[in-house]
Amino acid sequence: xxxxxxxxxxxxxxxxxxxxxxxxPVSIVRKVIVQKSTKNVDPVPFIGGLxxxxxxxxxxxxxxxxxxxxxxxxxxxxxxxxxSIFYKYHDDKSGLLMLLGKVLAGAAVMxxxxxxxxxxxxxxxxxxxxxxxxxxMFALIxxxxxNLKEIIETKNTEMLPFPMIVSGAVxxxxxxxxxxxxxxxxxxxxxxxxxLLCLVQLSLFVIFPSKPSADKLKxxx
Length: 221
Description:
There is one protein chain. The chain has helices spanning 7-21, 26-35, 44-63, 68-89, 93-120, 122-142, 148-154, 162-182, 185-207, 214-220. The protein is mainly alpha-helical. Helix 2 (26-35) runs parallel beside helix 4, helix 5 (93-120) runs antiparallel to helix 6 and helix 8 packs antiparallel against helix 9 (185-207). It starts with 6 loop residues before the first helix and ends with a helix. Mean pLDDT is 82; it is low at 213-221.
């Protein structure tokens, strides 16, 4: 049987696993609640996830893909819940709201562009919107690597969200397979690079521990 015959199955599995992935930050959110602080927890995955939920939902509507639409509605709602908990325990609430405002404004511009371009040239919209979404996805998945210098200096990967990275690797692999079936260049490129970024981050856990060593803790004290 050609791979095309498995389109619906792969799409449904990718959607279900992606929804399951959205629960990977639960352990991180639980940590925030227990310590009543957002120390060493980066808000970018939550805020970025919220913005990407909106942008990817619009992408699903453009492609008229029934596997992508419910997944991204769920992503938006769940990230909204995570972010509200993060906000409760965050010290710099004004800074967090400012960052959130910028992300939502960017998402609104994307959706507005899609609505206008849809009436002018639908084919051109699919290409350019897919290109922009691809770049945004790279930025979101690779965001933890912005702390690479600090990770190397401290030899500690505690700040990296391990559950989110592992689940991200699985999800990007499944959507890559789905993109191959659809023969959609943007879905393929998004998930090839996304998978590579996840693997690079996972390799850091092999090289460095996720907890500071006893010697480092003594030095801090």
